[in-house]
Design brief:
InterPro entries: DUF7521 (IPR055943)
Keywords: Membrane, Transmembrane, Transmembrane helix
Number of strands: 0
Shape: elongated
Structural class: mainly alpha
Largest sheet: none
Oligomer: single chain
Distance between the termini: 40 Å
Pfam families: DUF7521
Number of domains: 1
Strand content: under 5%
Helix content: over 70%
Length: about 110
């Protein structure tokens, strides 16, 4: 099946592209800010777990890490240090985000 706009579709699915130094710096800064804020919030949730021995707080901490820090590290690390195609990098980061959302939902509801 040959799509008439296949090059546009391929461009939309790319994870990285060559850009100016400013663009690269902004992308890197956004990864760092996302990871640091996610780890900070997860640390607070973990402290709540330790203080109250609350399993939902532990699941919340794990979920936040999987939702924020892990995808940032995977996205940057896999696209920079491996030859994986962009679609594989997106799949891995999406799976981490899904796992994080499941952990957060389980921490809130206790079951599905």
């Amino acid at each position: 099946m040959n799509l008439p706009h296949a090059p546009a579709l391929q461009l939309a699915l790319q994870v990285t592209e060559t850009g100016s130094t400013t663009q690269v710096a902004l992308v890197l800064a956004s990864f760092v800010v996302s990871a640091v804020l996610g780890l900070f919030i997860a640390r607070k949730a973990y402290q709540g777990y330790r203080r109250n021995d609350s399993t939902p707080m532990l699941l919340l901490a794990v979920g936040i890490v999987l939702l924020t820090a892990v995808p940032a590290v995977f996205s940057f690390g896999l696209s920079t240090f491996t030859t994986l195609p962009g679609s594989a990098v997106v799949l891995v980061t999406n799976l981490s985000e899904i796992a994080g959302l499941v952990a957060i939902a389980y921490s809130l509801y206790g079951r599905f």
